[in-house]
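[Q] Does anyone have a clean structure-token version of this?
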Amino acid sequence: MAHVVFFGGLGMLAGALARWLLGRLRRGVDVPPPWCELLVGVLWAASGYGWAAGWLETAWLPLLLGLGWLAVAAGAVDLLRCRLPDALTVPALPAALLLAVPLGGASVLRAVLGAALLGGGYLLIRLVAPAALGAGDVKLAAPLGAAMAAASWSALLVGALLAAVLTLGVAMVQSGVGALAGARLEAPIGVVGGVPHGPAMLAAGWLVLAMACTHGALPNA
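[A] Here you go.
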């Protein structure tokens, strides 16, 4: 219990820092308190619980905690403004690779290749169908691909599929509600049915990574 409180408290401080940083971006976003604090606190507390229970090796903690912070910070901006700022997505890739170092050389190599595969896949979709994805989604795909591939190739595949399913599912629900209300959704580029891709990508990435680094939850190859 002490570990949960400790990691949860650190997460709330990290969430407060995220909210402060978001408000000071060039195109700042004011996130009402205490959402960043609570969400990062919950994700970090869950990570701390898994570590204390022996489900999660210490080497995985930096990457899982870092991805949890990014998920809340970038997800908040995408939900509120339907965009993913470069100030978060661009440094996220080198950060993900650095946080994968404690996992060993094989994981770092997979992370590099995973970033290229998922980022390249999203870039290809963006080039073929520009309205389907925003540039921020492409930039976000690279660090998410790195984080998931650091765990395993199966994690990368499951994460990519889960992100698409989550986005499509929420879009279908929202479209159904809009149809019942007689509303017509005008979605900007990179938004499906009024639902931005970023939050689903980030949620899928964190969930899959958490499963992959928990002993036996996902295959390691």
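[Q] Thanks! Anything notable?
[A] The chain has eight helices and two strands.
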